[in-house]
Amino acid sequence: MMQLNRTLAVLLAGLVMAPSAFAADLRIGLAEDPDALDPAQSRTLVGRIVFASLCDKLVDITPALEFTPQLATAWNWSDDGLTLTMDLREGVTFHDGTAFDAAAVVANIERYKTMEESVRKSELASVETVEAVGPLQVAFHLASPDVTLLAQLSDRSGMMVSPTAAAAAGADFAMAPVCAGPFKFASRVQQDRIVLEKFAEYWNADNIHFDNLTFLPIPDGTVRLANLQSGDLDLVERLNATDVATVKGDGNLSFLEVTGLGYQAITVNIDNGEASDTPFGNEAKVRQAFSLAIDRDAINQVVFEGTVTPGNQPWEPSSPWYNADFPVKARDVEGAKALLAEAGVDRLPVELLVSTSPVTQQIGQLIQSMVAEAGFDLTLNTLEFATQLDTQSAGNFMMGQTGWSGRVDPDGNIHQFVTCEGGINDGDYCNPEVDDLLNQARGLSDPAARKEKYDAAMAILQNDLPLIYLYHTAWLYALDKDVTGFVTYPDGMIRLTGVSLAP
Predict the structure, then answer these.
(1) Which of 245, 361, 443, 459 is the 20 to 30 Å CA partner of 485?
(2) pLDDT tens-digit series, residues 326-369
(3) Which CATH architecture group holds 263-472?
(4) 22-31+183-260+475-501 topology per CATH
(5) Residue ranges per domain, the chain?
(6) On the CB side of 290, how many CA atoms lie within 13 Å of its CA?
(7) What angle do CA 324, 328, 333 make, to 5 degrees?
(8) Which helix (H) or strand (E) holds 288?
(9) What is the residue-wise DSSP string for 149-210?
(10) Which H/E stretch holds residue 133?
């Protein structure tokens, strides 16, 4: 009997010492359903959240927003700033068994630059060629210096997909994506779930503690929280600000938050098809009037209980890149009416696309009420979020309320949205002077010199208003208390390395 007890004790100790023996599934509630699961075509925040577990990048970031190795282990710049050389991680394979090497990087960058459906082109515009200079070394040769390139390679432009699978699938790659991340694609049911399975050959597999990962799109934040409370979810992103007190008061849950890098805004159709040919698309004063009629502080208090920062630029007011010459204006209905009168407009019917998210609809309804007093008869058109993005891209809109999760480098919050060939310039705004300023900023390593260019561009954009900025978010998370090791990042991504779920 004593020997049996010793044996049981040893076995129990082994279970305690080996948490990986408790293989688990993790279920994450998303605020929307992602668009295409192809880094070349993707535009959504939730898509990037899925990619964080599916597709490793050349470079990642730390919570302190410093660049850190992922598939590239080291890098250096030439003295003239025209060549970036990267050493690549050895022993990495894609989910289909294709080897990750320099040739794979070349194929990926060329795909992002040349694929017809790619929205990454403007992010990599400075890259003239990419060359395999060794089996595990690549060189990016630039047409002009570009201090933003590392930041681009730490996001979707740096995500590596299997060249074998990409060549076979073409534009349909998103139907069954094949990458080199900790989890591989298993299945997807649109508007219902995305299921990933642990990739046993992942280079850092010892630090991945889940066998399966399921993402469930649930637009209603209150329903997401209810699913977490019932045990049907383990983690939810973008918790409603109105639910924070509930989470903090629930002993079975944990609450985490971090200040974000991005913004929420209204994109205006300036010149994308026939739908742009309205006083709203044609007259800057009309857009200025609409913006002036919005009470950003009221949105903050009514919808977010004071947890967001009212804004009017791609960067929040405390950012070193913010142009203090253009502070956030208080609501001014009479000033808005005067601007409309100067534009020769009395009352104007306008339409705003909003997603099915109850929070977004509440924001739309508030704006609808506010601008009515200034002379705008605003109709809200509600669409599922991915459908909304497709509608905007096609030019079938007047305005669309969307956001951006933000990037480490300031270029990532502005360039592709307002340059003439910008990959996410839905409104087709085009001002060569803005292009010139933002392209010059990409080539300047001195922060003060860069800021001069951004300030000059912002002075133009504050007049033209191709985007009407509203506020800057904080990322709010609610977790089951048994989820441990989760670290928040300002980019809003959910990284699962080192995260575990108690048995």
Answers:
(1) 245
(2) 999 999 999 999 999 999 999 999 999 999 999 999 999 999 99
(3) Roll (3.10)
(4) D-Maltodextrin-Binding Protein; domain 2 (3.40.190)
(5) 22-31+183-260+475-501, 56-174, 263-472
(6) 35
(7) 145
(8) helix 284-292
(9) HHHHHTTGGGB-B-HHHHHHHGGGGGGS--BSSSEEEEEEETTTEEEEEE-TT-TTGGG--E
(10) strand 127-134
